[in-house]
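Record now logged underneath.
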Amino acid sequence: MTTRSTRSPRRRTVVALAVVLAVLVVFVVRLVDIQVVNAREHVEDSVNIATGGKNVLYGTRGSIVDTNGQTLAGSILQYDVQLDPSNVGPVTRTDANGDTVEVDWPTIAAEIGAITGQSAEDVQKIVSDTLAVNPDSQYAVLATGLSTEKYRALVDLGLPFLTPTQHPARTYPDGAVAGNLVGFVGSDGTPLEGLESSQDSCLAATDGERVFQRGKDGVVIPGTETETPAVDGGTLTLTIDRDLQWYLQQLIAEQTQNQGAQHGQIMVVEAKTGKIRAAAEYPTVDPNNVSATDESDRSSRIFRGTFEPGSTFKALTAAMAIDSGVATPTSTVVASGRETFPNGARITDALSHGATTYTLAGVLIDSSNVGISKFAEMVPAETRYDYLQRFGIGQVSAVGFPGEETGVLRPVAEWDNQTFYNTSFGQGVSTTLPQLVGAYQAIANDGLKVPLSLVESCTLADGTVEETDAGPPTQVVSSSSAEQVQQMLENVFVQGSLSKALAIDGYRVAGKTGTGEISEGGTYKSGVYFTTLIGFAPADDPEYVVAVTLDQPTGVRSSAANAAAFQQAMTQVLKTFRVMPSDSQPVLLPKTG
């Protein structure tokens, strides 16, 4: 028999279940109403409450390094800091006694300013000005370009309304070392000059982004974040040796100033590979402080400057004559200090002298304009022009440096009677230093011209290495012809007037000087010259080509002004690359017949 006492708990259970079910039904109905029936309205409401946010995830611009991996240009992290003006206000902290205290906004503003270099009033004004425009604003820029040290100091303040974002900035740890080659970027990161510009496809990073939703209080809503990662730029490896570049920059700065020249350059190329190991000049630019340098000195005159090569061209003319089979180093011509040729052209030597029976070697040793002109007329003009083109004259190098000049090599149809002879000794034609060094590289490398290179490779962020292909070599003259020119150029250094100044103990060295006139307004300037000294060592097995140029030296106005710089530069090159001393003696050639 069921009693009253047993029925009462059962009834209470049924009632409780009914209440629970009723509540569940209400929740289900409401859930359906929110998520199905009126879903669109509620999504719009939530979007109005939450605010979208997006941060740029900056990729790091790639480094530029020398041939040994030493950094010439790199990136550091800097921080931009934003405020949430709508949530700015007092904060609570725990003091030294463990008590909770409230710190007011003016005090906090002063703490922020002490880190960012702003006054408390400046910080407060940023907030007040933003709120005056939009009382609900959650974004205002506090400071940009802060160091990691300042960023950490701001984080240590523990302020919920500060948001730092990091981004890379460019730095050049060795300052002006190779600044003329590396170039620089603008304050916004845009590449503006040098390799920073021409090799941007290797160096440039691809930025990513982080997208999210924030609540009314500015806190990121969990689960709303999506991220596209950034891709860093590649590492650009140069053929330059940083330490040699530094030394030669100091040297050319000293020598340019000592000689009172407008500017000076030193270029070093590996004879067998065409790799540029140094390209130093003065004045030059420090990419960390571009505005401190005159605009005309912010790039590279080595690649953008042109000049008449003067007597350095006589070696090229001699190579043509030998390779064409019309002369040997001991072939002779009779040349006076001044002559008028059958076509009416007048040629004059630097030093006055009577009729002399010169060998081709002697013409180079005494640098006779008349003598080389007589050997040049043995070779047809079109043939000489073709040789000059194969030597790379009148063409940009394979380096691809931005703004590189071509110089001037007029076609034979435009040669007048004077130009026919002048081109044989470097007048009526203009070159760049890479063109001239490239021509001597061919002579030093047994007639095989290897395209010059400044970039070794680009290593992408994923580790892929893209090697630079400068192009195939060209046999300009035969190996035998080149070796005979090498021998004559060694005799220039051994028997010439600068022999003592150019000597390097233990090494055989070869080369040629050039004193080029400077054209201005269609005429040559009086009493000033562009001087060049170019050579290679060891002469018996050339490994390095070195060239030194000075624009309008006033201490010594001839190419003798370049002798000290060349001797010191070549000595340092041989030491840097541990080139073994020569174990043989030069073969002396007769100057006269």
